[in-house]
Amino acid sequence: MSSYQGPDDSSGHPATSYRNFVLGTYVSLIDADATRIIRVTGWKMQDTASQHEYILATITRNGREGYVVFERSPGERDSSVSISAGSSTASFTSSLKSSSRFKAKDMVNFYVSDHPADAEQIWKIEFGAPPPLYMAINIASTIFDCFPTYVLSKTNCYFYVHVFQSMLLTHCSDSMPQLTDGDTLAGYTLGLKLWDPPLTPEEVDQMVSAKFDEELQDFRKSLETKAALVQRREEVVRQEQDEKHRVEHEKDRMEIERERRAREESDRAREESDRAREEVERKLESESRAREESDRAREKSDREIEKLKEMLAAFTTAQAQSCE
């Protein structure tokens, strides 16, 4: 998708559902703040009689640029569509002709080109301090919430672009748009040239700004709540992992302790066995020495007996000789 296809393009996301999609995509305000708007430009289609107007935002995230188109076009005809945003808006609603009333088709589309085909740039806003993309997404969602009806001569694409531009200037920038022909903003913007609603532009801006402040606060609160839940979930996961590691460590420690005790018991058993063997060896050695002592005593006794026998024989022989 390299170029803008125009209001009849069926691709993209409805503004309100895309806001919810963004809430589901971002995990925190820090994450949402990472996508910033560098500039916003207003464009006018040249190949249509209506000269359809829309807004293109140049965005950046992590050093990469992209392009987002915000636009309004008529959807299905629906005379039952109404606006419920206070007495002034109710009066506005009653003035709309059902024959020219449609459901507003406010879309958010992403593109890879910053110069749509068959279109002319009519104004540009450069941001000194780039606002986050979710500001523009909430602006688009708020405009639809306040004015969900497309009326050919009233709440049309020109009205949408003017209110969108006014909201950007009020909430996101302190500089006026740079116009391609050098004309003043009020004299150039078709949203003001063709302004027909009973509400003044100032009244519309006040109404949309009040609703925008509510939606933006709700958007940020939702992301903060989500971030807290994510942080809590991550903390629970960390606690579960820590507990798992603790259990595994304790299991390993107990296994090491069991092996240590088993080694100690084995060492003690081996030592006792060695002591018992040594005791047996000492006993056997003692018995051997006792036998040797007994043998030596017996040999000595036998020698003495032999000696006595010899002495007795000698004595007997001597007596016999003396008697002769």
If you had to describe this structure to a student in words, what would you say it looks like?
Strands 1, 2, 3, 4, 5, 6, 7 and 8 form an eight-stranded antiparallel beta sheet that branches. The chain is an alpha+beta fold and 324 residues long. Helix 4 packs across helix 5 and helix 5 (157-171) packs across helix 8 (201-323). A hairpin with a 7-residue loop joins strand 2 (36-45) and strand 3. The chain is 57% helix and 18% strand. The chain has helices at 15-25, 29-33, 87-94, 133-146, 157-171, 185-188, 190-193, 201-323; strands at 13-14, 36-45, 53-61, 64-77, 101-111, 119-126, 149-151, 178-179. Mean pLDDT is 80; it is low at 1-10, 81-99 and 182-188.
Please give a handful of descriptors for the protein shown.
324 residues; alpha+beta; 8-stranded antiparallel sheet; rod-shaped
What's the SSE blueprint?
Blueprint: E1 13-14, H1 15-25, H2 29-33, E2 36-45, E3 53-61, E4 64-77, H3 87-94, E5 101-111, E6 119-126, H4 133-146, E7 149-151, H5 157-171, E8 178-179, H6 185-188, H7 190-193, H8 201-323
DSSP, total strands: 8
Largest sheet: 8 strands, antiparallel
The fraction of residues assigned to DSSP E strands is 15-25%
Low-confidence stretches: 1-10, 81-99, 182-188
Order of helices and strands: EHHEEEHEEHEHEHHH
The gross shape turns out to be: rod-shaped
Mean pLDDT: 80
Approximate helicity band: 55-70%
Distance between the termini: 161 Å
Structural class: alpha+beta
Q: Mind telling me the C-alpha Rg?
A: 52 Å
How many DSSP H or I helices?
A: 8
